[in-house]
């Protein structure tokens, strides 16, 4: 198969994924690029986004802890939409804003598990939070505890959240997000070190008797940082 055909196949898969799945896949690919490639991609992205005032406004909102704290009074559906839209734009080092997100996420997840609503959105929120460079090991460990609960809720509803993978795609190699203390190995970027991955993540989908190991909730969120 020629290179352009390979790119076409990859683009076809990419188009069929939702925005969160696309993000996790891109993070996986970024794990494999050299420092020079990473800088070139950064230049391209910064150039293309320089005049995007709408994104600049959204980014300002996403990093405003006072505004985020006001979302507590919104209906659950509205909170989920707001967090999904803004969390990816959280800047590493903004501990106040991150703390507000970390207060909202357990409320959203608890509501989902109790009522069985918004399972897909909750799965995406967990995935974003687990690969986000702004979250600490402590944050990720706390969030990882929700994964099995979310899987169990999906299984109880009989949901099949996992779409069949493309051929030869099992070795996805999904990597971690851009960590504050990146290193390099053989000219390539190192993302999350093993010490920053919560041990709880390795038990996702292994609950006794439940056939949930292929559940998209666990697959996307767990492999996002493995």
UniProtKB/TrEMBL annotation:
<dbReference type="InterPro" id="IPR050897">
    <property type="entry name" value="SMAUG/VTS1_RNA-bind"/>
</dbReference>
<feature type="domain" description="RNA-binding protein vts1-like alpha-helical">
    <location>
        <begin position="12"/>
        <end position="47"/>
    </location>
</feature>
<feature type="domain" description="SMAUG/ZCCHC2-like PHAT">
    <location>
        <begin position="55"/>
        <end position="154"/>
    </location>
</feature>
<protein>
    <submittedName>
        <fullName>Protein Smaug homolog 1-like</fullName>
    </submittedName>
</protein>
<dbReference type="InterPro" id="IPR058599">
    <property type="entry name" value="PHAT_Smg/ZCCHC2-like"/>
</dbReference>
<dbReference type="GO" id="GO:0000932">
    <property type="term" value="C:P-body"/>
</dbReference>
<feature type="region of interest" description="Disordered">
    <location>
        <begin position="156"/>
        <end position="179"/>
    </location>
</feature>
<dbReference type="Pfam" id="PF26034">
    <property type="entry name" value="PHAT_SMAUG"/>
</dbReference>
<dbReference type="GO" id="GO:0003729">
    <property type="term" value="F:mRNA binding"/>
</dbReference>
<dbReference type="GO" id="GO:0000289">
    <property type="term" value="P:nuclear-transcribed mRNA poly(A) tail shortening"/>
</dbReference>
<dbReference type="Pfam" id="PF25479">
    <property type="entry name" value="Vts1"/>
</dbReference>
<keyword id="KW-0963">Cytoplasm</keyword>
<dbReference type="InterPro" id="IPR057327">
    <property type="entry name" value="Vts1_dom"/>
</dbReference>
